[in-house]
Amino acid sequence: MPDATLSPWTMSYFAVACVFLVIGQGLMAAGYGYPFAGVDAPETLALAHLLAIGWLGLLMIGALLQFVPVLIAAPLRAGRLAPSVLLLIVGGLLLLAGGFAALGGAEGLDGLSPGMLPLGAFLLVTGFGLAAAMLASTLLSARALPLPARFVGLGLAALTATILIGAAFAAVLSGIVASDLLATLLLHGVPFHAALGLGGWLSFTAIGVSYRLLPMFMLAPEKVSGAARTVWWTGATALVLVAASVAVVFLDAEAAKTLLALPLVLAFVAVSFYCVDLVRLYRERKRKVVELNIRASYAAFAALLAAVVLISIPATRAAAGEGAAALVYLFAFGWLTGLGLAQLYKIVPFLTWLECYGPILGRIAVPRVQDLVNEGRANFWFGLYYGAVTAATASLFAGSLPSFRVAVAAQLAATLGLMAELVRARRLSSVKGAGVPKPRLFLPLSRPQE
Amino acid sequence: MGEAANGALCEEIREALRMIIDPELGRNIVDLGLIYDVSVEDGGIAHVSMTTTTKGCPASQYLKEAVRNCVWYVPGVEYAEVRLTYEPAWTPEMMAD
């Protein structure tokens, strides 16, 4: 029977993603983008895309290259495209960010120009398109898709829609396309672009993968519960409605915005059932001692619930600033980034273990995956991280720019601390005694699994 | 090989397999219930039926290879054949207390 193998490029995706997270948080701490500029200012758009594509997008693609084969117990299709996809996305993102910076007044600086936007969008459409094709064709090779894989499949569809809408925005912003229809989409379609990207692509996919990873790591029953089915149906319906509303934008933009209320209610229902299911999984787990990656993941789930509840209440949504920015921040950093960091803290040591100790297993005594990390230090960094995210969100609600910068600086420090822990795991720093050759830090596997 | 000797060799194989741990859970694969069956034919041909905690796990092939290597080094074993199966699927209830 064919099995999933180690994905040789996943670690490279993770490393590049981490660099973009540091750059994004560093820019915010330095006073770049929202709240130091408007939510629709070019600086904010540059920052948002560095984080959404550079950090979250690359993190998710890198993780899926490894986990989609696990979800369906089949090998990855066209895996040789992984390095090209990485280069296309990074190249496209840098051009896109440069184009936004030019729109923000940096035109002429080091050759920046709005003309970089469509070229960047072209590379991003190509890169994400190839990634979606690799992953979707792998999913389609399964005879029947288990529920977690269905979440990923719909997430990939949302990714495709997000990228295509974004490419249309880039074409209009750069001035290479003069179309009233696309201008209307640019004026009114940003909430749909954000909802499909953050809610559809990143969140729906993360929820799907979590339905496989959490039972694995906690030894909880892998049965598909009624709550999980409800999450699937309500979430999928919400996403289809958001996508359909994009078409309504061309007919009646205000009506399309009103239509967003229904997907929001459905998202609230989906997240509520998801949280109920997460509590069930935790209670039914056989592994009594819960490791740090799980504890940190549950903090991210709490942030998801808080963000969705608060955005569903008109008063808190209005108090969250332009475009509910404070709640979008909580969603992006508390939920998506928090979960991403928590899972990196498990996946990086796990893949490192397989790379270093898998080939000698059964010949000599080997350490556990858990022996590659030091939970005490990482526990502190995760605590600081979530405390800083809470403080930054509160600062945005209060409109306090100085305290926001301090909170983001603390968030950045925590992120760097966690990344240092990941490097220590890669370097096998916590493993005592003579061992095996250290793996490459982030370059592809030196010894691909056969 | 007599039945008693055969049983003793199977037990030796199980004992040897205790040095292999599941990397994530940190417990040996015998106590985790991942070894479904061990048998030895005349001539020292050992057959092991095993599973992993998760179907499709990237550690599966490493574990299978580790079991094959480990069994082969047990005195009295001339050849080792390992079969990875997910029928039945492993559940946490299969772990020894």
TrEMBL record, chain B:
Coiled coil: none annotated. It comes from the Bacteria. InterPro entries: Fe-S_Maturation_MIP18, FSCA_dom_sf, MIP18-like. Pfam families: FeS_assembly_P. Residues 11-82 form the MIP18 family-like domain. This is Aromatic ring hydroxylase. It comes from Sinorhizobium saheli.
